[in-house]
Write a structure and sequence with these properties.
about 300 residues, alpha/beta, Rossmann fold, 9 strands, S-formylglutathione_hydrol, Esterase-like
C-alpha cells in the first residue's frame, strides 16, 4: 500500500515528510506526518526507534508538527516521530449530526466503531495500532527505521486517552516499550466527551466501553514490575475538572500492580494548549528515549 509524499520539509537536522495513503481500515485517504531525525540522514544509528504521537480533538497532523517541537528532541536522542490524523475524513464520511467538534470528523477517539453509520470508516484503533505501522514499514523498507518493534506511544487529550488505551490493550504482547500522555481523558466512560463518543461509536453496552476505558483496562493488566506511565496535567486547563480528571486513574489502580506506577505531574498555571504540551515534550522525550534504549 503506497504512500504519496505530499511535501518534504527540511526541519531541525532532519526532514518532516507529509504523507497520504489509502487505508483499508478506514476506507478513506489518511494523512500522516513522519519526522526522520538527523541520525537517519547521517547514518549515525543502526536502528532508529519510533514514537507514535496521537493528537487531540479537532486536530490534524499539522498541529503537533508545527507546535510541539518534538523534532528537536528526536534529533537529540535519535528517534523518529509518527503523527497520524485524528479521524477518517472525506465527503462521504459521517460526522456529528449536531455539527459539534467533539465527535465525528477530527474526533475519532481511536476506537473501532460498531454502530452505524460510523462502523464503515471509524476503525481508528485498528488503523493506528495495526495498519499504519505495517504500511509505514513496507513503504520505507529501510532497516535503520524500526516502525514495528522498538516503539513507544504518547498523545494529548483525546490522543492521551488513545495512547494509554492502546498501550494497555497491547501490554501482554509488549508492543509498546513505554507510554506517556499530556492531559489525557483517563476515564472516558464517566465524562461528557467520552460518553458522547462511546455512545455514538460503540452503542449503549457498558462492557463495550470498558474495553477501551483506561481506568477499567488497567485493573485487568498485570504490571511487569518496572513499567510506569508518565502524565502531565496543567492546573489551569479548562477541561481538567469536568473532562480529564486524571486523579480517577490513580483511584482505579489502588490495590493493583499499577499502584505507584502512574507518575502524574500537576503543573501549576498551564492550560490545555500546545504551549503546555511543548513545555513538557523534553521530559516525555527523555522518558521514552530511556525505555527505547537510547539513553
Amino acid at each position: 500500500m503506497s504512500f504519496k509524499v505530499e511535501s518534504e520539509i527540511h526541519c531541525c537536522g532532519g526532514k518532516l515528510l507529509k504523507l497520504s495513503h489509502d487505508s483499508s481500515k478506514t476506507g478513506t485517504s489518511m494523512n500522516v506526518n513522519v519526522y526522520l531525525p538527523q541520525q537517519f540522514y547521517h547514518k549515525q544509528s543502526d536502528k532508529i526507534p519510533v514514537i507514535y504521537y496521537l493528537s487531540g480533538l479537532s486536530c490534524t497532523p499539522q498541529n503537533v508538527s508545527e507546535k510541539a517541537f518534538w523534532q528537536l528532541q528526536a534529533d537529540r536522542f535519535g528517534f523518529a516521530m509518527v503523527f497520524p490524523d485524528t479521524s477518517p475524513r472525506g465527503e462521504d464520511v459521517p460526522g456529528d449530526p449536531a455539527n459539534g467538534w467533539d465527535f465525528g470528523l477530527g474526533a475519532g477517539f481511536y476506537v473501532n466503531a460498531t454502530q452505524q453509520p460510523y462502523a464503515k470508516n471509524y476503525q481508528m484503533f485498528s488503523y493506528i495500532h495495526d495498519e499504519l505501522p505495517t504500511v509505514l514499514d513496507q513503504f520505507f523498507k529501510n532497516p535503520s527505521l524500526d516502525f514495528l518493534d522498538n516503539i513507544a506511544i504518547t498523545g494529548h487529550s483525546m490522543g492521551g486517552f488513545g495512547a494509554i488505551a492502546g498501550f494497555l490493550k497491547h501490554y501482554s504482547s509488549k508492543k509498546y516499550k513505554s507510554c506517556s500522555a499530556f492531559a489525557p481523558i483517563v476515564n472516558p466512560s464517566k465524562v461528557p466527551w467520552g460518553e458522547k463518543a462511546f455512545g455514538g461509536y460503540l452503542g449503549s453496552d457498558a462492557a463495550a466501553w470498558e474495553q477501551y476505558d483506561p481506568a477499567s483496562l488497567i485493573q485487568k493488566v498485570q504490571n511487569n514490575g518496572t513499567d510506569r506511565i508518565l502524565i502531565h496535567q496543567g492546573t489551569s486547563d479548562p477541561f481538567y475538572r469536568d473532562q480529564l480528571k486524571p486523579e480517577l486513574l490513580l483511584e482505579s489502580v489502588k490495590g493493583t500492580s499499577w499502584e505507584g506506577k502512574i507518575d502524574l505531574e500537576l503543573v501549576e498555571g498551564f492550560d490545555h494548549s500546545y504551549f503546555f504540551v511543548s513545555s513538557f515534550v523534553p521530559q516525555h522525550a527523555q522518558f521514552h528515549a530511556k525505555n527505547l534504549g537510547l539513553i
